[in-house]
Amino acid sequence: MSSLWNLPRVAMLGLLLVAAPFALHRRSDAAEPAKTPAVRLIAPENLSAATRAEVQSRMARHGNVMSNLVRAVILLDRPTIAVLALRIADEEVVARVEASGSKKWESRLPKGFFAEQDALRAAARELATTATRAGSDSAMADGFAAVARTCVACHSVYLHGRADEGK
């Protein structure tokens, strides 16, 4: 059984010379502060703290389902994609009108929020349909891209109080 110690000295020196730049690069990266990616939406300034708290509590499950949907799409798990997409379309929405008949949300959320939510519901339903068909994986990826676009548009309205003009 051979080991690194049995290699000729020249080969060992070569290995050290090749490995040294990588080790030094790693050390310089460790000296820089790590940047942690955002794990939740930043707080919009145009909404009251009470409204933000209510929306955040409603959207916590939505975030988990979306994360699971991303995994399912990447893994091409069509049955799970269909279930999660329908859950997004049918269950994880902010009602325009409360059970009491109050239009509380329409008056508290930015104009355009519900239009973007409707687009999300339609895109999620289409993704669920695509996932149940024996179609191409590329078509499913396009369906997921449509869902992701609606997510970004809805978050843009929520955060900035207006639709993104770059559409």
Helices and strands, in N-to-C order?
HHHHHH
Spatial shape: elongated
Low-confidence stretches: 9-18, 22-30
Number of helices: 6
**Rounded to an integer, what's the Rg over CA atoms?**
24 Å
| Content-based structural category | mainly alpha
Main beta sheet strand tally, sense and closure: none
Span between termini: 64 Å
Sheet-strand content, in percent, reads under 5%
Q: State the helicity in percent bands.
A: 55-70%
Number of strands: 0
Rounded average pLDDT: 75
What does this structure look like?
There is one protein chain. This protein has 167 residues and is an all-alpha fold. The protein is built from six helices and no strands. It is elongated and about 45 Å long. The termini are far apart. The model is unreliable at 9-18 and 22-30 (pLDDT under 50).
Task: Write the topology of this structure.
Layout: H1 9-31, H2 49-74, H3 78-90, H4 104-108, H5 113-132, H6 137-160
Helix pairs in contact: 2-3, 3-5, 5-6
Features of the shown structure:
167 residues; mainly alpha; 6 helices; 66% helix; 0% strand; elongated
Give a short synopsis of this structure:
The protein has helices spanning 9-31, 49-74, 78-90, 104-108, 113-132, 137-160.
